[in-house]
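Reproducibility note. Readers wishing to regenerate the assembly model reported in the main text can use the exact inputs given here. Chain order matters: entities are listed in the order in which they were concatenated for prediction.
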Amino acid sequence: MEKEKIILDVDTGSDDAVAIICALLSNEFDVLGICTVSGNVNIDNATDNTLRVVDYLNSSVKVYKGASLPLASTLIPWGIQGLTLPHNEIRLDDSKRIHPDHLPLPKPNITYEDKSAVIWLIETLLKQEDHSVTLVPVGPLTNIALAIRSDERILKKIKRIVLMGGSHDVYAPTQGAEFNIWVDPEAAEIVINSGLDVTMVSLDATSCICLDYNEAKRIRDINTRAAIFVADMIEQRLNAAKKTMNKQAGQVVGIALHDPLAVCAIKHPEVLTDIWDTSCHIDLGRSYAYGETVLGRNYQSEINEKGEYVNLPNNIHYVRKANKEIFFNWLYNLLVEDTK
Ligand code: RIB
Ligand code: CA
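Running the prediction on these inputs yields the following C-alpha cells for the assembly.
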C-alpha cells in the first residue's frame, strides 16, 4: 500500500505530542518533516517538545522551527491575543497544565534543522509531484499561510489539508472560537480560502472522542514506552482539566485528544461520521467574535443570469461528529503494534 506523504505542523502541547507519535508509528505515512509554530506554548518550547517526542521514538524525521508569533492578532498589545500569547495559560506548574512548557520526556539529543519551517515547506513542496502531499496542521496556521502567501506555486503540490481547528457548537477559549483559529485568525482565513481541499476536524468532532482514566489505563497496560507516554498525556490532560472544570461545572468525565483525530482521519475517514460541505470564513473583526469560524453563509447568496438564487461555492469539509470507538481502536492498535 502506497504511503501518504504528509507534513505535520504542530504547537507541541500534550495532544500534539500524541499526534506526532501516531504519525511516526503508523506504516500508512511518509512523514516528510515536522514544522513547529507557537500556540499552546512559545516557539522554543513547542520546538523542544517536538524534538523530545521525535528523539524518544528514535525517529529520523527532521524538525523545522517556524513562526514565533501570529501574523497580526498580537499586534494590538492590549488585545486578548496580545495579552495572552505566547504566554497562554496562567503559569501553573507544568504537571498541572494541559500543555506543559516542557513535556515529561528526556531532553532531546537532537536539534531542529538550520532552515526555517516556511522556507523548508516551500522548497520541499516545490520538489514534489503535483497534488501529492497532505498538510496536517494541528496548531495555529501561521506557517502554512506564510508559505502560501510567499510562493503560490506550492498550491498545486498540495493534495489536501486536514487540519484540527474550528468550532460551531463547542468552543474554547472564547465564547465562540477554537484555539488554533483564534490564535491566528488572519492565517486561518488565508489557508481556508486558498482554493485547496480543506477538511476541518473541529472541536465539535473532537468532543465526541473524549477519553477517561479507564481508557488511559488500558493504554498504559500495553506497557511500551510510547503507550506509557500516551497514557501519561491523557492523565495529564484529565488532571489539568479537573482543576479548571471543577470550578465551572462538575466532574470531568473525559478529555479530548484533539490533534490525533486529524491524523486518524487521513487514512481512516470512516472515523468522521458527520461532515458538512459548506462555506467557512473567519471573523476578522477585532471584537467579541474575532477568530470565530463563520459557517454556512453561502446559502442562496447570489442571483444567476436567469434571476435564480444560487449558493456561493463551498470551501470547507467541516467535520461535526466523530466515532470514539473507531478512534480509540485505531490509537490502541497503533500502540500495540509499536515495534520501535
Ligand atoms: O482547540 C484544540 C487545539 O488547540 C489543539 O490543537 C490543541 O493542541 C490546541 O493547540
Ligand atoms: Ca495543537
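We highlight two features of this model. Residues 4-337 form a domain with the Inosine-uridine Nucleoside N-ribohydrolase; Chain A fold (CATH 3.90.245.10). The radius of gyration is 19 Å.
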